[in-house]
Each structure stands twice: as C-alpha cells, then as structure tokens.
Amino acid sequence: MKTHHKFLIGGFSSIIIIFIVVSSILTYTLFIRLEINHNELSDQITEVQKDTQSKFNELTENLLKTNKEVTSLGIELGTIDNEFDSLKASVGEGFEGIVEEAIKSVVTVRTDISQGTGFIISEEGYVVTNEHVMAGAKAAGIFTYNEEDTYQVSLIGSDSEMDVSLLKIEGNFEKLELANSDDIQVGEKVVAIGNPLGLQFSVSEGIVSALNRPGANNINAYIQTDAALNPGNSGGPLINKQGLVIGINNFKVGGGESLGFALESNYLKDTINEIALASGLNQTLV
Q1: What is the pLDDT of residues 22-37, one digit of tens each?
Q2: Is 132 a catalytic residue?
Q3: ∠ CA(282), CA(283), CA(286), 5° rounding?
C-alpha cells in the first residue's frame, strides 16, 4: 500500500474516531441537559402542586369561614326578625295576630247561675276556668269563638283554694300554651280575653303592674295587671306578646281602677296537674 494511501486511511479513521468522540460528548451533554431540564421541570411541577394545594387549602378555609359567617348572619337575621316580631307585639297593633290565634282556644263557660270564661289547655278538649265560675252550678255548657254549638261539659275536678276547675269537652281543639311565669317582667304588655258583663270574647290590653301579689288564699301567687277585668272575665287567659298564657284571670279589687289579678301560670300548671292526677287521669296535662 502506498504511503499516501496510508495517510488517507489514517486521516479518515481519525476523523471517524473524532466524530464518534464528539458525538458521544454531545450526546452525553444533551442527555445531561435533558436530565437537568427534567429535574428542573419536576421541581417546577412540585412547586406548582404545592402552590396549588396551598391555594386550595386557603380557598377551602375561606369557604368554610364564609359559610360560618353566612350561617351566623342567618342566625343574627333570624334573631333580628324575632326581636322585630316581639317589638311589633309589644305595641297594641302587634297583638292583632296573637289575639286572632289565641281566641280560637278561648271559650265561654255558661252555667245555670253564672257566666265566665275558660281556655283550652290540650287538644283533647281539657278546659280550665275558675272554680267560682262552676261553684253551685247544676248545669253548664261551653261554646267556642267560631262555633255556635254548645258542648256538654264534664267536671274533672276543682281546687277551691287556688280557685281552679278542670273541665272536659269532647272533640279536637287548638290549645293555648302556658308560659314560665318565672320569666314575667313588670311592665311587659299583656292582653286579657274574656266575656266581661256578657260581652263575649272581648279583649283588653294592659301591662304587668306587679308580681307575687297575695290572693284571698294568702299565697303570693298573683300577677297584678291594669288590663280591664270585669265579671265574666273570670277564668280567661292573660296572654303575653309571645301568645303564651302567663296567668288565669281571677279577680279585681272592688272600688279601684286597673287593679286586676291573675294566678301565675306556674301555680296554675301545678294545680291543673294535681287535679288531673287526683281525679284518676294518671297523667299530667300541661
């Protein structure tokens, strides 16, 4: 082989070797670069994921906080609505709806010797009135505000000391709820529903003038009110601005104005349940 041929072959081989080495270096460099880019991309993805998770957590916390605030606002708005309803009820015109509902459970008690008022305390037709309304009567009947039919009355029992009688009529009726008389406040507005002087289902408005007044039984169990009470109001309910019975109208002081008295609802409740148990009903009614 000639010398110049050897040079050509050697030069070509060197070029190939250099090409292979350079290609290897470039390939390795490219691989290293791709690896670096991959790692950087992975790090960026990780950072994005962390940032996204953080923002998601923050969004969740904000949503929960917003939900609590909305719920709280709803409660506050409900409280405001309740207070507004109570405020409306604390003035005369606000009693219209209360009286409209309460009067459905008020009854006239008419005997052969007198007339008074009562009110229904259970859906089964149990009625409470004053004992002196029923005292000495040989016959009695009851009729409600929106019905002309007279109901036959059964006397379940009476407590002469507390001046309370428990009656029963047959049927299903709307009842009045008794308030906790421990919550009564002097000065709060009330209405009395009854049949003063035969004027059936009359309503008079007043306030609670005093609490724990003594009655004829010398028990400090009576609400003093300036709501007008007259003969025929006996046994009717004294109702607060929530539509609850705070007392049963009982008597007034003769010769004085605006001096009516009602047995407090807690005493009334105890008396009703004692009468019911003593009569053999074996249950409490209120």
Answers
A1: 667 767 676 677 667 6
A2: yes
A3: 155
**What is the signed CA dihedral for 72, 75, 77, 80, rounded to 10 degrees?**
-130
Measured CA to CA, the distance from residue 75 to residue 40 in angstroms comes to: 52
Question: Does 234 participate in catalysis according to the annotation?
Answer: yes
Q: Identify whether 163 is a catalytic site residue.
A: yes
Catalytic hit among 163, 165, 204, 265: 163
Out of 1.10.10.10, 2.40.10.10, 3.30.1330.10, 3.40.50.2000, the CATH code matching 96-168 is 2.40.10.10
For the domain 181-278, what is the CATH code?
2.40.10.10
What is the pLDDT averaged over residues 187-203? 88
Neighbours of 140 (CB within 10 A): 24
Alpha-carbon distance 28 to 11, whole Å?
A: 25
Which candidate in 132, 158, 181, 204 is catalytic? 132
**Ramachandran angles phi, psi of 265, nearest 5°:** -60, -35
